[in-house]
Amino acid sequence: MHDNHFFLNRELNADLHNHSNVSDGVLPPEVLAVRAKENGVELWALTDHDEVSGCEKAKQAAHDLGLPFICGVEVSVSFLSETIHVVGLGVDHQQSTLISNLAHNRQGRIARAQAIAQSLEKAGIKGCYEGAMRYTQKPETISRMHFARYLVEIGACENPAAVFKRYLTEGKPGYIAHLWTSLQNSVQWIREAGGIAVLAHPGRYKRLRPKQEDLLFEQFIEFGGLGVEVVTGSHSPQDAIKYTQKAIDYNLWASRGSDFHAPGESRIDLGALPPLSTKLEPVWLHLANRIHY
Ligand code: AMP
Ligand code: MN
Ligand code: MN
Ligand code: MN
Predict the structure, then answer these.
(1) The model's pTM
(2) Ligand 1, pocket residues at CB < 6 Å
(3) What is the mean pLDDT of the chain?
């Protein structure tokens, strides 16, 4: 196996954003590790929503497969009128303050899920709370994705993407606004746990006007954020071009991750992403001392 870090190069097939069934993915961490290895991933990070409890299993499975691994997390944040996500790479998944901060951020999920179910019931769809809960491993991780899977199960829509469009996004029955932690907290939690904070899929924050997006980048950097996702399953090719330039303009390290959730559900499989532009500084060149072999 690797007894040094010289394998870290720009062209590495790094997949630094994906989800296990610890949050709203469907595969257990150890199964995800096998899929990453089989798909040719050379550096892998698990980044569950507001959860690091899958990292230990992922780390051990990756070790057995000879797959270099990084503990990660995707923190839910409220910024202006938008929900944004901040990925933490190389966090200490056993740090008690990180674990309790994330637990606190998850706390509102159950009440939100009840409100979502009530809203869907008013729209004529009953039993969504129980239905969505059946897709979770533990109640406090309940996500809109679990509702989406249940609504597909009962035939309300063809696929999760259609459910989001018709039910779970702003202005639609089933959408409930939610207050997550602040941008400053998210970056601080990640830094204090030894990680690098990366702004996740900025192309998805459609509610932010250009000036507000600039403010997001500026504040993220001011609080100590160091990276931005450029190539991700959540970006269109045009987004990747736009945020390549943003990464350069703001002098941020660039990250790459599939945002894989489930076979047949996610647009891009683990490890199946295009490369980063050679103009960018890959974030993984700065992760050497955070890799588990
Ligand atoms: P939550 O954290 O419960 O609000 O759920 C957010 C999750 O729902 C994201 O991490 C994605 O997995 C999924 N998601 C959000 N928006 C969409 C969308 N438009 N289409 C498909 N999945 C989405
Ligand atoms: Mn998700
Ligand atoms: Mn996300
Ligand atoms: Mn994600």
Answers:
(1) 0.97
(2) 24, 49, 76, 143-145, 160-161, 164, 261
(3) 97
